[in-house]
Each structure stands twice: as C-alpha cells, then as structure tokens.
C-alpha cells in the first residue's frame, strides 16, 4: 500500500511538534501543510470538522485528529521500527496517564503564565510550577520518561520545550530553579535529530507570544 | 499469574460505570470498594496520588487511573475474550477520538445542566444539546458506535445514561426530542447484562443531584 502522509500543522504548536517527532522517529516521509488554526481553511474544516484544530494527520486520505492519538496511530501503523509506546499493558497505561496529565493539567497554566496578567497569571504560575515538580518527580532518576529510551511521554512533553523560554520571560520564573532534573532531561532530548527538526525556535516563539499578548490585551 | 482485581469506585460515577462494564464484558471478577471521592481515603491517595479521584483499577497491587485508560488496559490484559477496541489502527484512532470528545467536551455541560442555574445553565444546555446532536450524527445508522458490536465508545458514553433523567429534569429539556436516534441506541445498550449491572438507578441519581444542587447553592 502506498503511504501518502500529510500533516496539517502550525509552526508554534507544541501538539504538532509531537506528531512531527513521532513521524521522524519512525522515518515516515510526509507532506507538511502550514495551517494557521485561526483561519479555518476548507481543508481543516473537512479533515477535523468537530474541533477544527491542528495538527491533523492525513494518511491515505483519512484524517486522524488529536496529537496523542496520532502518536499511538503512528506507533501502530509503523510498528516495525522504533517502538514509541511500551508493549507491556501496565507500562502503556502509565504512559497514557502521563500523556493525559500533560494535556489536561499542564496545558492550561502553561499558556496562562504568558497569556494573562495579574492574579490570573500568579495563580497560573503557581499551578504550573506544581506541575513541573510533579513531572520531575515522575521522571525521577530515569534518563527518559520511557526509562532508558525516549518514548511516548517524552514526545508528549518535549513539544512544550520551545515555549519554556516564553513561559519564563513573561511568567518571571526559572524552570531550572524549580525543576532542575527536568531541564537536564530536556538537554538529553533536544539533541535528538527528530526533536531538532520538529522544534520551533524559542526566540521566534517569544515574538509570537508578544503578538498574542497584544491581541489578548495583556500588553 | 493470579489476577487480583480491585475497583475503587463511587456508585454515581459515570466513569466508574465504564470500568464496571468493561470488566463485566470480559468476565473479570473483582472486589468492589465503594469510595466517596470527596473523602480522600488513605487508599485513594496512595493509589491515585496525582488526581485523588475514582475510579481506580488495582490489578495485582498496581493502580491504573482514568476510566478510558482502564478500558484500554482491560482490553489488552484480557485480550482473549470480547474485544472492546477495534484491531484496525484507523478505527482504533477514531474510537479514541470519540472517547476523548466525550471526556473533554461532553462532561462539562453534562453536569452544568443540572448543577448550575441562570445564564450558566442556559449556556450549558445549549452546548450539551449540540454535543448530543454531534454524537447522534457520529452514530448515524449504525446500531452501535462500534458498528455491529458494542465497543469502546459505547462504553464511554453509556456511563452517562444514569444521569440522562437528571439532566432532563433539572435542565428542562428532552434528550429524545433533540437526539431520538441516540435514545434508540441507549435502548439497545441498557439491555446488556454488563450495562444493567453497572448502571446506577436514574431516580437515585436525581436524589443525589438534589443533594449536590443544595450544596452548590443552586436550590
């Protein structure tokens, strides 16, 4: 079967970065279509009619939405190379748990820390720091969340790395001071070819966040 | 290997109902421990230190949290009987997508429609009806979300059935009027032995919701 793979994505998205990393780890070639999610293009609406959000992975014409679901899909379809999820059901459930944690708990304060001000920002920073500490505790002394190997949770979290500098600048805190082992972990991840290629430049993200802050009335 | 299975759950939880249904479909015997999530028992804190929420599935001493993750775990561990998720990666990704949709979009308005009043309730009802219609469209003319078989999305959604009556009573609307095919689908589901055993009595849920409404200052 021919594998025609298209990715609808927007360069600053930490979710899209996950999917790009997973595809790169598997060595899957794909066509990248830059898709600003604030402009609802006909293709985006057709491929993700429910959420109308990026990233959308289109495999042989069929769309897969939601980045964590995309990673699982990629791992299952291209199963003969680099396993992303553990094969053991218990370890797999724990990887899924932390992926969910990042999406449900981490995401909200991670943008509010740079996208709000005043009390809302203070509360977001407090919450975000707690989550950084929780994630650091979960990492423990392992080199990766996947243990000895770079896996599902690593991919789920490292997508945020491009935004760390913006979080620190506008949130006025140091992630390294709060979670030094987590920063050590990022250093191991960001030298991987798949990660280097997927990540947005943190300085470009700061510029993007500046524009966004103005549109939100924060600046 | 001995299979010691314990479920920490609270009777009105639509999430716990999912896990009970999945275990029943697989014919897994387990010890049920009624666990009020508002009372943070030492066992609950030990088994789900991050969220401190039910349901928690404990398999041979190891906890699995989050109901959708529990269903996947149950399906993988007891893989030799009744398959819950489709085996095809694309169909599996779509099942996961709708499970996520129910958790991320449906849950919030589904409690606000009975747990709030005024403008907040009106907005919740509007949103909830939209989601009911979206879910009905996704069902289409299939007997189940799993196609010909009762599967992952069916389990994810039917857990809410016990709450339908409370939603309708306090939200002052008719689900059947808004999404008649969805109600036809519930009728097919609620005759299953696994569902009958798992579901809370809708009238008991109404009584529970009454108590909750008082504590929230809605009544």
Automatic annotation (TrEMBL), chains A, B:
Q: Name one GO biological process term.
A: toxin catabolic process
Q: Which InterPro entries match?
A: Glutathione-S-Trfase_C-like, Glutathione-S-Trfase_C_sf, Glutathione_S-Trfase, Glutathione_S-Trfase_N, GST_C_Tau, Omega/Tau-like, Thioredoxin-like_sf
Residue ranges annotated for the GST C-terminal domain, each copy included: 88-212
- Which CDD domains did the record assign? GST_C_Tau, GST_N_Tau
Task: Please name the Pfam families in this protein's record.
Answer: GST_C_2 (PF13410), GST_N (PF02798)
- UniProt keyword annotation of Transferase present: yes
Top-level enzyme category: transferase
The Gene Ontology CC terms held by the record are: cytosol
Any one GO MF term held by the record is: glutathione transferase activity
List each copy of the GST N-terminal domain by range. Answer: 3-82
Report the EC code(s) recorded for this entry.
Answer: 2.5.1.18
Please identify the protein, giving its name as recorded: Glutathione S-transferase
Organism expressing this protein natively: Arabis nemorensis
